[in-house]
Write a structure and sequence with these properties.
Blueprint lengths: L1 H4 L4 H14 L4 H13 L3 H14 L4 H13 L3 H14 L4 H13 L3 H10 L4 H12 L3 H14 L4 H10 L3 H7 L1
Helix pairs in contact: 2-3, 3-4, 3-5, 4-5, 5-6, 5-7, 6-7, 7-8, 7-9, 8-9, 9-10, 9-11, 11-12
């Protein structure tokens, strides 16, 4: 996991996961991390397959369930993503990452008012970046700009979220500049 998260060494992480799977092919933690690696690499179908296997082995694990929801969201399977996020919230009410899946799903389906309410329940830095995006989608440009200024001030150490908020607002040069 270190090579994946700290070094961003995808090939090394894949080798580590191959070794771990050879030792214990039914380890839900290994399957979950492999799913995240596939998602990082844009291999969403394989990510979903691994995520489903992890959830099958550990059906009450909200981390695995919510990761599967995010994998489905990234693959455009929004309805199923919402189902899994809701399941996660049934097990662990208020689990922020599940709330984020619901918020992004609402945003992607044009329900910016619902997304705004969900993002307000979320945790930082997703909360602030999502509020910027939802306000922009609602046409509340000044509020969105003000929220972006706060995000950049308060979360300067989170450039991916600043970039995402800028990109949603259509400022691609600013998004790349944030990175």
């Amino acid at each position: 996991r270190y090579r994946m998260r700290q070094d961003l060494n995808w090939e090394g992480a894949s080798q580590d996961l191959d070794r771990a799977m050879a030792i214990d092919p039914a380890n839900e933690g290994v399957l979950n991390v492999r799913a995240l690696l596939f998602l990082t690499l844009g291999r969403t179908r394989e990510s979903i397959e691994m995520g489903r296997r992890a959830v099958d082995l550990s059906p009450l694990n909200v981390v695995h369930i919510t990761n599967l929801a995010m994998e489905l969201l990234c693959d455009g399977q929004l309805a199923e993503a919402r189902e899994w996020a809701r399941r996660s919230l049934e097990i662990s009410p208020g689990y922020a990452r599940a709330v984020h899946v619901l918020a992004y799903s609402a945003l992607l389906t044009g329900k910016a008012d619902v997304a705004l309410a969900e993002f307000e329940r979320g945790s930082e830095p997703v909360r602030s970046a999502g509020i910027v995006a939802a306000l922009h989608s609602l046409g509340r440009e000044q509020e969105s700009r003000d929220a972006l200024v706060r995000l950049e001030r308060d979360r300067a150490d989170e450039p991916v979220f600043v970039a995402g908020a800028r990109a949603w607002r259509g400022d691609l040069d600013g998004a790349f500049g944030a990175l």
